[in-house]
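Predict the holo structure. Ligand: 6-deoxy-beta-L-fructofuranose.
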Amino acid sequence: MTTLTREDILSRLIRQHIETQSWGYVSTGTRFKVYTTPGTPRDVWEKIDDAALVHELTGVAPTVALHIPWDKVDDYQALATYARSKNLSIGSISPNIFQDDDYKFGSFTNEDPRIRAKAIQHSLDCIDVMSEVGSTVMSMWVADGTNYPGQGNFRRRRQYLSESLQEVYAGLSDDQSMILEYKLFEPAFYHTDIADWGQSLSFCQKLGDKAKVLVDLGHHALGVNIEHIVATLIDEGRLGGFDLNNKKYADDDLFVGAINPYEMFLIAVELVGAEDDPNPQVSAAAKKVLYKIDQCAMVEEKIPAMLRSVTAMQSSFAKALLVDREALRSAQIDGDVVEANEVLVDAFETDVRPLLAEVRERLGVPTNPLAAFKNSKERSARINDRIGIAAGW
Ligand code: LRH
Ligand code: MN
């Protein structure tokens, strides 16, 4: 088994930090339909209430990501104070440069300099929001792309994008950073300007040290080896964070571990290995990686779906911490292929529920957060009290 002591593993799991996302608590759907669910928040304050409840029930979700303008308020300091009163902090801030009508033909890549300037100004305004709420991470997704060959000039767009990102990057203060997301397709269906990890990495390297890559687990072509991408980005010192969810086909945004928990485990193996890397730069960078949920509960209740994702992340990391890395290394060096895989699978197939129950006891939270919520008055109160239009995106 692992060379880590039980106490090592328990203390690592107790310190785990999973950031939930405000838009994971509201009505979202597909282009075909957005269903509502009883008890859904009606505004950002109720989104904060739900994120705070998820932290209260798990002990490892102390921050919530906001998306602007979905979470726009007149007084962001009041919002941060409200969150703190609920034992929660505001986490990363996402500018929305994909829903305004002006962005029909792109935001940072638009041929019209006035529209590029508009997207840049919105992003700079989001940096002001970060300063007001005490957030240090800008989570940037550029949805820009085209639907048909010939519609756009790849290199001219790349030039516009690079210039736009530089203007936003220049607005960051020393303690603020940017994580740059990539996505293979959707909403664009022919090309996307930041379509894969390599394209995001090349922009980040051009921007500077405060720019790193954001890996959304739903943004790859089928069959792509995400744990290998993660290892590569760790090696480049440019892994900034994750948008955590799960998928069967495309950007399905299902909850973590619902379809492929083994993949999430293999990704966690790369991460805990990096946290313990003898190279202090690698381990320090690995300990700064942001784990942010980015899912859409389209037909299921939002809080249970969020609890499923947070506890699935705890399970993936608990199993990854159980990997006997010395046995793995010697099997790899000896070319003992079957043994090497066996070492991993042995950890993956270990029942970590007793270990996680102990983590939760030490955190003073329910040993089964999902069951605790289901039987709670919190759930029934939300269903009974939250009358009126549910928030959505
Ligand atoms: C794009 C994305 C991005 C968010 C959006 C809500 O698919 O993953 O991270 O801004 O979802
Ligand atoms: Mn995402």
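The chain has a mean pLDDT of 97. Residues 181, 216, 243, 294 surround manganese (II) ion (ligand 2) (CB under 6 Å).
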